[in-house]
Amino acid sequence: MQQDLLAYVPSESALQERVILVTGAAAGMGKAIAKACAQYGATVVMLDKEVRRAEETYDEIVNAGYPEPALYPLDMQGATAKDYYDLAENIREQLGRLDGVMLNAAWLGAFTPISHYDTELWSKMIMVNLHANFLLTQACLPLLNAAADPAIVFAGHTSNKAFYGAFGVAKAGMTAFCDILAAEYDDPAHFIRVNTVDTGPARTSMRTLNFPGENPQSVARPEALVAPYLYFLGADAGKRTGEHVVFARQPGEARWAGEAVAA
């Protein structure tokens, strides 16, 4: 059952020898996913604009004895198609392969009614939350096509609601993007597993910024929610593709069984 994915724990070496690119890997959900991927053997390419925080996450991964990750500073708001092709080429030259892409980075700038929406803010949010993901994915497709068990996972967010504006439009676009990619690569000769995961609210700085009246302790920690992402990034997911898995809000005290493995 879908709910069981929250309790999924991979085998100790489930992601061994895999190279997985995680966007927004410096903090929040991206950091938790990056560390969990490394815990289970992956070499993680950590893409983020926040270099200092990314370096802190890098140190945590190395100090835990996991495979050394790679840092790739990049601001997805201003990056061009060439920047993403350079990223893919660097991965090919330095690491030789790419097995998975975790599209986690997101930015919700403001809750605003459409009638008052600032057009520049709209453009920036569409860029970060939708167009940049297209540019990155397109650049990485040749590397993924060469992998034995490639996967793309989208961090979903049900946000087609009042006042979500460009963020809601972008996330809906990402859902459609997943459907299109999954259909185009549901081919035995060129298969890429493509899915979205929406774990519900997570205790992140973006969540706290946008919901200042909410008690952060009432929201699950990112570390408690990583299991479904690991599942779809690894071989256990098999040929499951084109799925949009959505979970109910988890309690603040939730804990993932895999966290004990790292202790």
From TrEMBL:
Query: Which Pfam families does the UniProt record give?
Result: adh_short
Q: Cite the GO molecular-function annotations of the record.
A: oxidoreductase activity
Keywords from the UniProt entry: Oxidoreductase
UniProt lists the family membership as follows: Belongs to the short-chain dehydrogenases/reductases (SDR) family.
Q: What is this protein called?
A: NAD(P)-dependent dehydrogenase, short-chain alcohol dehydrogenase family
Q: What is the species listed in this Swiss-Prot or TrEMBL entry?
A: Thiothrix caldifontis
